[in-house]
Automatic annotation (TrEMBL):
This is ATP-dependent acyl-CoA ligase. The keyword Glycoprotein does not apply. The keyword Ribonucleoprotein does not apply. Transmembrane segments: none annotated. Keywords: Ligase. Residues 19-385 form the AMP-dependent synthetase/ligase domain. Pfam families: AMP-binding (PF00501), AMP-binding_C (PF13193). One of its GO terms (molecular function) is acid-thiol ligase activity. Residues 436-513 form the AMP-binding enzyme C-terminal domain.
Amino acid sequence: MHIVDLSRLTDRVVGRILTEQAAHAGDARWLMSDDRVVTFGEARDAVSRIAASLAGFGVGRGDVVAVHMDASIDLVLAGIGASELGARFAPMSTDYHGEFLSRNIAASTAEVLVTDARLAGQYASLADLGRVRHLVVAGKADLDPLRRPGLAVHDFEELLTNEPIALPSVAAHDDVLMMWWSSGTTGAPKGIMQTHAGLMRSASYWIRDRDVREDEVWYSCLPMYLGGAYTTALWPSLVSGTAVGIDASLSVSRFWDRVRHYRATQIFTLGAMHMFLMQAPERPDDRDNSVRCAVPVPLPWSQVPRFKERFGIPDVQQAYGQSEVPCRIFAAPDDGTPWRDNAIGRPVPWLDVRLVDENDEDVPVGEVGEIIVRPKEPNLLFAGYFNAPDVTARTWRNLWHHTGDLARAEPDGQYFFADRKKDYIRYKGRNISMVEVEAVVAGHPEVAEVAAFGRQSAELESEAELALAVVARAGASLVAEELARFINDHAPYYFVPRYIEIVDDLPRNAQFKTDKVALRSRPLADGAWDRDLAGFEVSR
């Protein structure tokens, strides 16, 4: 283990950190996936080769390299290779297809896109590739159907076998390292730009708070088109010179087998992942694992003792952050504090944190206010929304980042999550934009009006089930299950709602807008369609 000193702002650059780790212990394992192991030295060499190849494609400082891949070692190497040129890599959701995928590609402005064999086939029929001129495919795939005029198709191995060119790293600490796509704070998905300095500093804080030791192994089965896999596992492993095990997805039945396979000591689970683990049938070997520290976000504190006892984990922490603030906003360490259910911790010391009303004035202790933050050191938070300066300015009004989330503080210093101001819901770790769901449903020829909203999840207090209230066109015979199938065919699978209510009209507020507070608070109507009760099979 070698924890890189990041006290100097200008040293917080991914390529420099990887170079230092390779020089310190080039033969030490870093990236692991199944039985594949890549050392720090091998990663440094591969990144240099990939950077040289991308430079040959015309990639330079400020450009975007889109990445549409399952979580993998190749994804990590491709992303860091792009960053060596001062470019930023932009992972895209592997659940996107058709129009959604085309829209994301176009929004990224990327001219180079890296995908993998599992996802490559759809590019043969994808009409709009935006500005993409180079398509790179990792893994064994038939490349011929992907070729078309104006598009060069490459095997990922070509990037690794090319001779590395001595390229001076042009990346700086305040360059954008990567951007992931999220619902942000205003509803419509947008690119959240994260700098080298912000993500590396965030990693150093995670290392500090998780008592990292010599034999540390981080484990992630989170998708790598979201920030969690990077901020809670990949980047901390890089900065600390320790290993990380990467799986493409969560398997509840095999989770602890995978932990044992990697001999993982650090785990992070998001949304309902840990609830699924606790609901799984108990096994005699539940405690037979090497995990020392777990961060299940969020887990009711009343259930933490059971979680610790069943899985034999001594240190269980929690935290609250968001895609725009990867360094966390609140932290709840396992330090003997009698945390109460729904507590998200105390403000972290590297941020100023306030709870405010609609005029940005502080609310009294015990009252609910919006969480707003600003950093105490430079380049710590996100660098804005990609190609959306107006949205960035609104979010940063009065020189504070407005999270769009509500909380309250209690006299003993504990903070409690209250609600979300944003027009999205959180479902199984994803932020789902109601604006986009409604746009898809409105495309059905028999739909006149639609309101998408969340109903409280029975599994997890902080998450919601997607529900629709739909008004049919006059004379139409709209069937809920047919509408669900339409959504499944035209959008990511998680846009298929749990509930569909076909109603005569939608409730309105004083501004004649749909009153979603009223929709959320009223009981489910008799005869409402329930995806689970209907046995509807969602196609992914």
